[in-house]
C-alpha cells in the first residue's frame, strides 16, 4: 500500500489513492494500520475515490476501523493532497462524503498551500439529525449526561457527524481519558458521539479538547471545532466568527445566518510511505 501521511493540527491521517490499492483489505485492517506501535500510526485513513456527484469522493475510516460520515481536518488534508497530486486541478472543488458534498477552497501564497477554507455545510441541534434519543424534532440543547457523580448539561450538535459539547471553566482540568469514552458510548447517542469540552476565553475565542468517536483523544477535531462554535453562538457566548484553540493549534470558524459553517485551517504532509499489507494483516 502506497500512502501519504498528513495531519491537520496534529489530527493525523494515512491518505491512500483508492483506485490503486486493495481498499477492502485496507478497511478490514484499518485498526492494525493505524496502530502507533505495530502499524503506520494515525487517527484515521482517508481514501481517495472517484465520484459521480462531485469532483472526487472521500471515505474516512477511524483508527478503530469504524467508518465516519465526515472529517473536518481530514477534508482539508484530502483537498490539499488531491490538488497537489493533480488529481483535481481546481482550487475550489467539491468532495463527496457520506455527510454530503463538502466545498474546500485551496488558499495559496507564492505557490504554497497555506490554508484550506471549507464550506462544511450547516449545523443542526435536532435530535433526528445528530442523532440523539428523544422526540425527533426537539433540539438537543440541554441534554443531561450523568457520569459517575457528575451531572453535565450538554448540547448535541450535528455537523454531518454527532457531537456532544460541554462547557467548562477549565478544559485542562477535565479527565478526558476517563469521561470521554463514557460519553462517547452514552445511551442517548444511538450512533455514539464525539465529545468536546470547551472553555469560553472571549466573545471571539474558544478553547477545547476532544475525545473523538472511534479514535479517542486527538490533537484536533475540525467538525468538533465547528460544533463548539455553533453551540457557543447559540448560547450567546460568542459571535459568528471565532478562533477555536485546540491542543494542536487554531482553527477559524465562521457561521452564517442560515447555520452554514466555514472552517479555515492548515494541512501538512509529513512523509510518503509504502506498507507491505501482508506483513501486518
Ligand atoms: N471520529 C469522527 C470522524 C473524524 C472527525 C475529526 N477528525 C474531524 O476533524 O472532524 C467521527 O467518527 O465522527
UniProtKB/TrEMBL annotation:
Its EC number is 5.1.1.7. GO terms for cellular component: cytosol. Keywords: Amino-acid biosynthesis, Cytoplasm, Isomerase, Lysine biosynthesis. One of its GO terms (biological process) is lysine biosynthetic process via diaminopimelate. The active site is at residues 71, 221. The keyword Cytoplasm applies. The record marks 163, 212 as: Could be important to modulate the pK values of the two catalytic cysteine residues. Pathway: Amino-acid biosynthesis; L-lysine biosynthesis via DAP pathway; DL-2,6-diaminopimelate from LL-2,6-diaminopimelate: step 1/1. SUPFAM superfamilies: Diaminopimelate epimerase-like. It is found in: Cytoplasm. It catalyses: (2S,6S)-2,6-diaminopimelate = meso-2,6-diaminopimelate. The keyword ATP-binding does not apply. One of its GO terms (molecular function) is diaminopimelate epimerase activity. Pfam families: DAP_epimerase. Homodimer. Belongs to the diaminopimelate epimerase family. Catalyzes the stereoinversion of LL-2,6-diaminopimelate (L,L-DAP) to meso-diaminopimelate (meso-DAP), a precursor of L-lysine and an essential component of the bacterial peptidoglycan. This is Diaminopimelate epimerase. It comes from Tepidanaerobacter syntrophicus.
Amino acid at each position: 500500500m502506497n500512502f501519504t501521511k498528513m495531519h491537520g493540527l496534529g489530527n493525523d491521517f494515512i491518505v491512500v489513492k483508492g483506485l490503486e490499492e486493495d481498499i477492502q483489505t485496507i478497511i478490514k485492517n484499518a485498526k492494525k494500520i493505524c496502530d502507533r506501535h505495530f502499524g503506520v500510526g494515525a487517527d484515521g485513513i482517508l481514501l481517495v475515490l472517484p465520484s459521480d456527484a462531485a469532483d472526487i469522493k472521500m471515505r474516512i475510516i477511524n483508527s478503530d476501523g469504524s467508518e465516519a460520515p465526515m472529517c473536518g481536518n481530514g477534508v482539508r488534508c484530502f483537498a490539499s493532497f488531491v490538488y497537489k497530486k493533480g488529481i483535481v486541478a481546481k482550487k475550489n472543488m467539491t468532495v463527496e462524503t457520506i455527510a454530503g458534498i463538502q466545498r474546500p477552497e485551496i488558499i495559496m501564497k507564492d505557490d504554497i498551500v497555506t490554508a484550506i477554507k471549507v464550506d462544511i455545510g450547516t449545523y443542526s441541534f435536532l435530535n433526528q439529525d445528530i442523532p440523539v434519543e428523544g422526540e425527533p424534532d426537539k433540539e438537543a440543547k440541554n441534554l443531561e449526561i450523568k457520569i459517575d457523580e457528575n451531572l453535565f448539561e450538554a448540547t448535541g450538535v450535528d455537523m454531518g457527524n454527532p457531537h456532544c459539547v460541554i462547557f467548562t471553566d477549565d478544559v485542562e482540568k477535565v479527565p478526558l481519558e476517563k469521561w470521554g469514552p463514557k460519553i462517547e458510548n452514552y445511551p442517548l447517542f444511538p450512533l455514539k458521539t464525539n465529545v468536546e469540552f470547551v472553555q469560553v476565553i472571549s466573545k471571539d475565542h474558544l478553547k477545547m479538547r476532544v475525545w473523538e468517536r472511534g479514535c479517542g483523544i486527538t490533537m484536533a477535531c475540525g467538525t468538533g471545532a465547528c460544533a463548539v462554535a455553533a453551540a457557543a453562538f447559540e448560547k450567546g457566548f460568542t459571535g459568528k466568527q471565532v478562533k477555536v484553540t485546540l491542543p494542536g493549534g487554531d482553527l477559524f470558524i465562521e457561521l452564517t445566518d442560515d447555520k452554514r459553517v466555514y472552517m479555515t485551517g492548515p494541512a501538512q504532509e509529513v512523509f510518503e510511505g509504502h506498507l507491505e499489507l501482508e506483513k501486518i494483516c
